Amino acid sequence: MENFLEKILAEKVLEVAQMPLEIPGQVRKVKGFIERLRENPQQLQVIAEVKRASPSLGAINLDVDVLAQAKSYETAGVSAISVLTDPVFFKGAIDDLRLVAKNVDVPVLNKDFIIDKKQITRAVNSGATIVLLIVACLAEKDLQDLYDYATSLGLEVLVEVHNAEELAIAHRINAELIGVNNRNLKTFEVDIQNSLDLVPLQEKERFYISESGIKSPVEAEKVAQDFRAVLVGEALMKDGNPTIAARNLQVKRHVD
Ligand SMILES: O=P(O)(O)OC[C@@H](O)[C@@H](O)c1c[nH]c2ccccc12
């Protein structure tokens, strides 16, 4: 079986080598994602993604009007908007993120494969307020360095894990926001059970998000009790009415 993650990372090294070194500015002022989670424990929160294509599916919605899509998410009351900026495998662009961040009043997540501080600086300067760090992409020391750099700039950091070993690393670096990806980045197989299997290992005082393969309220309900939010791309990109679709995913949570 071909390892997709290795392929993506090899390409990313080339992309980052060409990336100019920027001086970090201020993080865009918006009510933070974690603050939004704290305020709304009774409802599953949604991070809605702008995703034109993916290596597993190919084209999802190549001609999407990125701004209209993001606005429809904002209208639905999502807690954050994720914008894919990888050009090669996901047909994204940093300009997509810039456009969205300039025009919405919610946190924006720069979804990419971050391996270098330059990408984090570019994210903050483009209006992102959250960056993704994927444990499977990084040595623990580099993960810690990038995590500390991002938080020092005032960014929120979503640390993505796939299994118990990676979750232990996320806990060790003291990540507050942890995403469990239901998609195996090596094989691209998706199983929501991935999120559920790690529930016994969750720690108090951290916020857990279930990522990928959430297609409808049926899947949202399965993770709603043990996760504070879901990260959803494909289903919203393919729906004719993304506002209604994103609203329907914000199912009730029962908190005592
Ligand atoms: O389109 P889906 O199955 O709803 O998944 C969204 C999101 O979780 C997925 O795009 C994703 C999760 N982690 C990533 C890391 C890189 C690229 C993409 C991703």
Automatic annotation (TrEMBL):
GO terms for molecular function: indole-3-glycerol-phosphate synthase activity; phosphoribosylanthranilate isomerase activity. It catalyses: 1-(2-carboxyphenylamino)-1-deoxy-D-ribulose 5-phosphate + H(+) = (1S,2R)-1-C-(indol-3-yl)glycerol 3-phosphate + CO2 + H2O. Pathway: Amino-acid biosynthesis; L-tryptophan biosynthesis; L-tryptophan from chorismate: step 4/5. PROSITE patterns: IGPS (PS00614). GO terms for biological process: L-tryptophan biosynthetic process. Its EC number is 4.1.1.48. Residues 5-248 form the Indole-3-glycerol phosphate synthase domain. The keyword Disulfide bond does not apply. Keywords: Amino-acid biosynthesis, Aromatic amino acid biosynthesis, Decarboxylase, Lyase, Tryptophan biosynthesis. Belongs to the TrpC family. This is Indole-3-glycerol phosphate synthase. The lineage of its organism: Bacteria, Bacillati, Bacillota, Bacilli, Lactobacillales.
